[in-house]
Fold these 3 entries.
Entry 1:
Amino acid sequence: MTLFRRLVPDRSPAASGEYCDVTVLFADLEGFTTLTEQLPANEVVAWLNAHFTAMVAQVDRFAGVVDRFIGDAMFVLWDGPTPEEAAARAVQAALAMQAAIATLQEQSLSEGKRPLKVRIGLSSGRAIRAEIGAPGRLERTVIGDVVNTAARLEALNKEFHTDVILSRATLDLAGPRAQVRELGTVTLKGRREPVTVYSLGGWQGEAP
């Protein structure tokens, strides 16, 4: 893997970047804001870290790279060895993350606590890899429509009452082993071209 998040040396931003093909995953914890209002700060932090630990383990298992944590959300990347393999790994990681969170949900219920769900959006396409920021605060990351689309698809789960939504581009790359249900064609905020989206249900040969 070549994509990662890091602060680069203290210098001015360079006006340069390179194109790359990636699959992007956004994951967000549903109901976390309400949870922060109900629990002491130390419990909130422990809860959040437990969920991130479970999800990151699955990202690592399928060779993804966590670009950053954004509050209770995660931004994850796959960029190889081929676009097809990257998409397939991302799809399998999404399913594995859901399974890991389901285990935490069962534990929470057994302890009389409110369980949290995770919503995931997946998109594939061309992005720009660059150092973004200001002098002394540069970060190596990727930007572009594929990143924005994945974030919008994560949020779209609320409208469709689903857990994982992926774009047609990701499905085409991941191949027929991805078990999906078509949700229709949607127009996402900030994007002129509509996107055909799918709910992910499983991976052929494995339980949903």
Entry 2:
Amino acid sequence: MLGGNTHVVGKVLSLFEVHTQAIRKGKAHKPTEFGRLVQVDEVENGIVSNYDVKDGNPADVDQWTPSVSQHKAIFGRAPKLATADRGFYSAKNESSAHAFGVDHAVLPARGPLSSKRVKHQRQRWFRRGLKWRAGIESRIATLKHRFDMVRARYKGEHGFKRDVGWSVIANNLVSIARTREKRKALHDAKGKRAA
């Protein structure tokens, strides 16, 4: 440290949670955050189909193919539409999604766009996918605040992962119950109209 080397392997960032890591997201207003990076995959009706507590701060671009592969392993088929934020974009990721059987891969490109790319990203299905992707931000906020994923109650790395898992389970139970109630109300309303 005195020699100017601030990148020390095994540096302790928290006395209470030794598994805490420094996370750099590249945001000017939050240059460095402390905690753990959690990737969340969501399907219809707000159900979290997969989550992973990452070790370190891996690049988003490297997480796309394993995520689509995991979805296919869970559901037996690739999603018709798969979307993520700009950090996941690469031509390789778009082609790998199509190779898995994804009909529409909605990955907005970074930086200045060519006219061909602008035309591609202005298509109706692409814009709809972007709107759907924006919903994951509210899912993350719900997991953090409503289901208390923002603060782990269990101690240690395994405890943290357990706490994240409980947050996901609680979210999914509420989402499933809401969906069932909506479907029941819709079914009842159709039955009343038919009578």
Entry 3:
Amino acid sequence: MQDTAPLDVKLRRGIIRKPDIAFMSREHKKRMTTKHWGIPDLVVEILSKGNKSQDRVEKFKEYQEACILEYWIVDPFLQTIEVFILENGAYILFGKWGTDEIAQSKLLAGFQVAINSVFE
């Protein structure tokens, strides 16, 4: 099986994840090494039949504990995008968008994604 995840992200000692998409601001670029990234500012996970629980439970908790500021869950089965933001050390749902709607980031001002374009 081919590894399609873009990179290793070290959340803490002994915990390495491979998010489908990760974003690191210029302000935190010192967290990036040739071996792995440190804590990114934003991660995106795309659900598959085999990883729903892992992304919604395990990674959700790990990303929250690592203080990743924004976590996007892309659900191709329901054709939705959920955006969670970190507030006071816990994720809260910033928004959930579906067909004919536009998902947006709180962290990245002006960054939007048309749901229909993701699932065409």
